[in-house]
Amino acid sequence: MSANEDQEMELEALRSIYEGDESFRELSPVSFQYRIGENGDPKAFLIEISWTETYPQTPPIISMNAFFNNTISSAVKQSILAKLQEAVEVNLGTAMTYTLFEYAKDNKEQFMENHQPVNSTIPISSIISVETPNTAPSSKKKEKKEHLSKAQKRKLADKTDHKGELPRGWNWVDVVKHLSKTGSKDDE
């Protein structure tokens, strides 16, 4: 069978296996996400698998760069990806997306045993405003971090796509205000 036929068969199988599973997301016919762990579980993580043109004869691209994983340290992510890569090598040449997702589910506790949540939340104000460089010499004082409530964090996460980027046009109100101010000067 050709790679495309294998991919079509695996795509049908994945759709039927994960039908109704809220943890599974088909981003495109060759790219899938699966949340390992329940919503609200501090040790939950998201795996994204993308097929190459010649998959399953060549390894798929496995990523943990989703915004959902922003509290997981890069060392833990690298460890998980290394273990998944070992599973890829064992299954090379066969349909393995389901196998990789199930392997991650079965070994979640082992994968996350060294997990210490990393607070990488960015306050909304620093995303929207342009920061001015601090010309004063830096003092030894620790700057207080703005802590967001759960609702504020959820609202911030809802504004971004699955990769943590703001959607196109998120600041259209600011743009319209700016244009209306600059447009009135031109009319004079």
TrEMBL record:
Pfam families xrefs: RWD (PF05773)
Annotated ranges, domain RWD: 9-111
Leader sequence segment: none
InterPro entries for the chain: RWD_dom, RWDD4, UBQ-conjugating_enzyme/RWD
Spans annotated as Disordered: 129-167
Basic and acidic residues bias: start-end ranges: 145-166
SMART domains assigned to the protein according to its UniProt record, in alphabetical order: RWD
PANTHER family: RWD DOMAIN-CONTAINING PROTEIN 4 (PTHR21275)
UniProt name for this protein: RWD domain containing 4
Organism: Ailuropoda melanoleuca
